[in-house]
Amino acid sequence: MCINYTPVSQHGLDFFNTVAPADAEWPAETWQDYRAPIIRLGANGERETLVGSYGMVPQKKIPPHVKKFSTMNARSEDVGTKRSYAKPWREGQLCLVPMDRFYEPNWETGKHVRWGIGMRDTRPFAVAGLWREWPEADGGVAYSFTQLTINAAGHDLMEHFHKPGQEKRSLVIVPPDEYDEWLHCRNPELARAFLGLYPAELMAAEPAPKPPKDSAPAAGD
Predict the structure, then answer these.
(1) What predicted TM-score, i.e. pTM, was given to this entire model?
(2) Nearest to 80 by CA among 148, 171, 152, 179
(3) What is the pLDDT of residues 180-194, one digit of tens each?
């Protein structure tokens, strides 16, 4: 499961023919509850970028008496039945999560090594996600999102990640020519047709140790 990725910068959103609000900022790497850009279908039927919190249910929204749980990834197999995701999935609250690469653990050396995974041509890309909104005390609205995952057994690249014996999973990379079809889809059964593995020959991966803290500029710069 992906729990960390590099979101596109403000400039990188040009690739998706959209822009974020002028004052929007987000960190150079995204972890649980970090802010990052997502692309959804706007009221005018065009792509709209907003900034949301990574994880469908932000940790601060979990009641104190409930054990903390993670909603950074939604399994496609049960996304329609899990309480955290069922309503947004049923109502077609689909989004694209734009990024430069995501990170997974490789254990083939016998220890955890972080690898970065992206496109062979180094261009930004987007993965399939769901979004929801949360009412704020000041009358405003905040957003959160999750990424959809699928089984990756047999995939020439993604089967190399996670601990031995663990199920192999992958984010759903959406081909650029399907962006608008995905965003416009409002039928959950039809949406499943988009949930496939991306061709390994179009992807690239390499070891990517974590950068020193506070050494990277904000992605919104």
Answers:
(1) 0.93
(2) 148
(3) 999 999 999 999 999
